[in-house]
Amino acid sequence: MEDNTSVPRRALVLGPGEGTIVAGSGGTPVVIKIRGQDVTSGGYSFMEMDVAPGPGARPHIHHEADEAFYVVDGELTVVMDGESVVAPTGSFVLVPRGTRHTFRNQGARMAKAVFILSPPGFERFFEELAALRQASPTGQVDFATMAEVGQKFATEFFES
User: Fold this and answer.
1) CB distance 146 to 157 below 8 Å
2) What is the DSSP code string of 1-43?
């Protein structure tokens, strides 16, 4: 019997800006293009993220997923296990599961990157965080709440 678990169930084309749009942990848009359960038979998720100039993502570890990202526009500074690298437009970064990492945009304009996580699931972190922000009277979520949501998706966040 042939194993079809890795075969997509249907073809899919999404145009610019199409997908599920939610606010990322920094408040800029995250476009979830593919959830793991959508068409990839649980293989990966694919997201597009605008990264504003500033402090960037909180340091974190994905304990059960590898994360890859490709810088589409701009430049990101990526810190993995304490080592800092600059990733300009066209750069590919692979962060193996279990690696403490963060990224930030040190430039003066918005950067854009696409993120692939395998296995998928972390895309739901952004959806849950967005729902909590909408329910909050301030539109914000504190670090403890963000970290608690992260734990649901096998991701550990650090304050610094």
Assistant:
1) yes
2) ----TTS-SS-----TT-SEEEE-TTSSEEEEEE-TTTTSTTS
Span 21-137+144-157: which CATH code? Answer: 2.60.120.10
Total length of the chain: 160
On whether the CB atoms of residues 114 and 96 are closer than 8 A, the answer is no
Q: Where are the domains of the chain?
A: 21-137+144-157
pTM, 2 dp:
0.87
Query: pLDDT tens digits, residue range 117-142?
Result: 999 999 999 899 889 988 989 888 89
- Which of 73, 60, 3, 64 is CA-nearest to residue 36? 64
**Cα 130 → chain centroid:** 13
